[in-house]
């Protein structure tokens, strides 16, 4: 069920009987010079930012987003929720180094300040300093949450500065996750879009309650047995089906049909995310919920949980991200809001790094550096000449071993794709010491430059031609699949028809269907698969995931 006619045929069931008039024009993006001025209202327990397009209300001094008013809707956030459960920053942490399991904490600030207020910008700070009296109770971090509203902007920005101070009274801890979450109104936002081919009318949160669903193998997955919308009966809902690689996770969100309004979370840079470009993270899911995940061990485990020693100094800026709001006049045009959100995402990406954040910890373009060069591949068994590393992923990350960037989760990472001739340019890199890493689709192994690179403000470094030699002991005798860090070429079975998500039927990412691990034992009930080199076809005979079965062996 995508964004085509199937949805259009039921769109009116989500709307009132009245019709919307007007043209196909989107409301959103940057305003004109005649845009209304900014207003800031400071109340006893709330702060309100208003630019005449969007009005954002935050609790004071907690810094929780309690209300977003836009396009005639008094509050886009779920008013049935407690104010502290609408729009917030959170962490999952552990007082020891125990990995993923830990304490879930919504970050509630204690100090409120107006950082900037003029005709062009309002920036607010909601800070929560830590001291030893909080040990074991609050995550041992100084956290400064920032919220920014610009004149003429159809949305607002948020970012945060986390700091673990380098002094003995600051205890050791692990940080399993940190993110921003927004909980939208379930009576309005029922259509979700994560990608061009992953968008659909979603179940309601009520559909996940007892009596309307059947629990499956893990708590996030349920089978809809009596959903409010009977057309969804028999489908699986699972938030992990909407995960996304960091490199592709730029914009996602929700559409309301009455009135036609879009709510989008735009992440213009991956530099503050952990795990590199192919690390997966959650996006949006039933709630309706929209997430910006900066750090998380999903799909990776404890190795991607940063562990900080006692008195270990650390500081990092997460964001800014942009919450973009758009609208159209006619409900028939509601699904075009996704295309408009993608265009706005490109505007935000091209504007990175932003010039407006007031924190000295967020560095502007002229305070950053650039690295360029050309990556070639030397493999005499493939070609006698050096080959351009076409489409290679080339990045800068913390110093380590080849491939260590996949587990790096404390610092920043900067990645680019090489052109057809192997040329690459990594721009807007924060000052510091890095190693240069790469991998090349079609070749096994990881490249690491022999010499580390030091970035200084304003520097432009050309590393020239560098050569990757894939590991090998001789000519290739046989090969199963394509060494491109994807399993897309292998055999992906059809799911059990009892556990379908219709959006993934005949879909390039059909591996996300629920329960495919059980299909392996059904396909090979008497033992594990046997693959015969030279006879078998990996697109038909090699199961895409190495799951356990009867004798837990592959041949």
TrEMBL record:
First-listed, main subcellular location of the protein, grouped into a coarse class: secreted
Annotated Gene Ontology cellular components are: extracellular region
Instruction: Check the record and name the InterPro entries matching this protein.
Output: Carb-bd-like_fold (IPR013784), Gal_mutarotase_sf_dom (IPR011013), Galactose-bd-like_sf (IPR008979), GH-type_carb-bd (IPR014718), Polysacch_Lyase_4 (IPR051850), RG-lyase_II (IPR029413), RG-lyase_III (IPR029411), Rhamnogal_lyase (IPR010325)
User: Which transformation does this protein catalyse, written as a reaction?
Assistant: Endotype eliminative cleavage of L-alpha-rhamnopyranosyl-(1->4)-alpha-D-galactopyranosyluronic acid bonds of rhamnogalacturonan I domains in ramified hairy regions of pectin leaving L-rhamnopyranose at the reducing end and 4-deoxy-4,5-unsaturated D-galactopyranosyluronic acid at the non-reducing end
Q: In this protein, which residues make up the domain named Rhamnogalacturonan lyase? A: 390-462, 476-549
Spell out the Gene3D superfamilies in the cross-references. 2.70.98.10, Carboxypeptidase-like, regulatory domain
> Do the record's keywords include Ribosomal protein?
no
Localization of this protein: Secreted
Q: Which Pfam families match?
A: CBM-like (PF14683), fn3_3 (PF14686), Rhamnogal_lyase (PF06045)
Q: Which UniProt keywords apply?
A: Lyase, Secreted, Signal
Q: EC number(s) per UniProt?
A: 4.2.2.23
Q: What class of enzyme is it?
A: lyase
What biological-process terms (Gene Ontology) are attached? carbohydrate metabolic process
Molecular functions per Gene Ontology: carbohydrate binding; rhamnogalacturonan endolyase activity
SUPFAM superfamilies xref list: Galactose mutarotase-like, Galactose-binding domain-like, Starch-binding domain-like
**Which family is it part of?**
Belongs to the polysaccharide lyase 4 family.
Under which name does UniProt file this protein? rhamnogalacturonan endolyase
Q: Which organism is it from?
A: Cuscuta epithymum
């Amino acid at each position: 069920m995508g964004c085509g006619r199937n949805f259009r045929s039921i769109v009116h069931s989500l709307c009132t009987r009245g019709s919307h008039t007007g043209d196909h024009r989107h409301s959103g993006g940057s305003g004109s010079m005649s845009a209304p001025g900014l207003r800031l209202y400071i109340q006893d327990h709330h702060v309100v930012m208003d630019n005449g397009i969007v009005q954002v209300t935050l609790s004071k001094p907690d810094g929780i987003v309690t209300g977003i008013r836009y396009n005639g809707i008094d509050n886009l956030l779920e008013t049935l929720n407690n104010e502290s459960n609408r729009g917030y920053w959170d962490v999952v942490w552990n007082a020891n180094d125990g990995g993923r399991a830990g304490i879930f904490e919504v970050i509630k600030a204690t100090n409120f300040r107006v950082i900037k207020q003029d005709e062009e910008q309002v920036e607010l700070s909601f800070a929560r300093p830590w001291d030893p009296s909080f040990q074991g109770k609050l995550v041992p971090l100084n956290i400064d949450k920032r919220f920014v509203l610009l004149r003429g902007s159809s949305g607002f920005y948020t970012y945060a500065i986390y700091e673990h101070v380098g002094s003995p009274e600051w205890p050791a801890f692990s940080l399993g996750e940190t993110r921003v979450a927004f909980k939208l109104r379930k009576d309005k936002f029922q259509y979700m879009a994560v990608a061009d081919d992953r968008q659909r009318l979603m179940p309601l949160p009520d559909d996940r309650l007892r009596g309307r669903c059947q629990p499956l193998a893990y708590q996030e997955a349920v089978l809809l047995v009596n959903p409010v919308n009977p057309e969804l009966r028999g489908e699986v809902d699972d938030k992990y089906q909407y995960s996304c690689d960091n490199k592709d996770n730029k914009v996602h969100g929700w559409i309301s049909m009455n009135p036609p309004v879009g709510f989008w979370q735009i992440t213009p840079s991956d530099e503050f995310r952990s795990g590199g470009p192919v690390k997966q993270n959650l996006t949006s899911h039933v709630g309706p919920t929209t997430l910006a995940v900066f750090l998380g061990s999903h799909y990776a485990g404890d190795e991607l949980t940063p562990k900080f020693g006692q008195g270990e100094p650390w500081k990092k800026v997460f964001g800014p991200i942009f919450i973009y709001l758009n609208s159209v006049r006619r409900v028939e045009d509601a699904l075009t809001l996704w295309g408009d959100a993608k265009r706005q995402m490109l505007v935000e990406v091209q504007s990175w790094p932003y010039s407006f954040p007031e924190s000295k910890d967020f560095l502007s373009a002229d305070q950053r550096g650039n690295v360029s060069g050309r990556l070639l591949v030397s493999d005499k068994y493939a070609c006698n000449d050096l080959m351009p590393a076409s489409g290679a992923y080339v990045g800068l990350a913390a110093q380590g071993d080849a491939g260590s960037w996949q587990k790096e989760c404390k610092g920043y990472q900067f990645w680019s794709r090489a052109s057809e001739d192997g040329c690459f340019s990594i721009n807007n890199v924060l000052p510091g010491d890095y190693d240069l890493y790469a991998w090349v689709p079609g070749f096994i192994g990881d490249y690491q430059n022999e010499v580390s690179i030091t970035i200084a403000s304003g520097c432009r470094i050309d590393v020239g031609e560098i050569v990757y030699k894939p590991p090998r002991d001789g000519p290739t005798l046989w090969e199963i699949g394509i060494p491109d860090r994807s399993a897309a070429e292998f055999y992906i079975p059809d799911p059990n028809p009892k556990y379908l998500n219709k959006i993934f039927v005949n879909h390039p990412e059909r591996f996300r269907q629920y329960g495919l691990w059980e299909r392996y034992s059904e396909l090979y009930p008497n033992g594990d698969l046997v693959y015969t080199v030279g006879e078998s076809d990996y697109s038909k005979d090699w199961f895409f995931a190495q799951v356990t079965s009867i004798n837990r062996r592959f041949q």
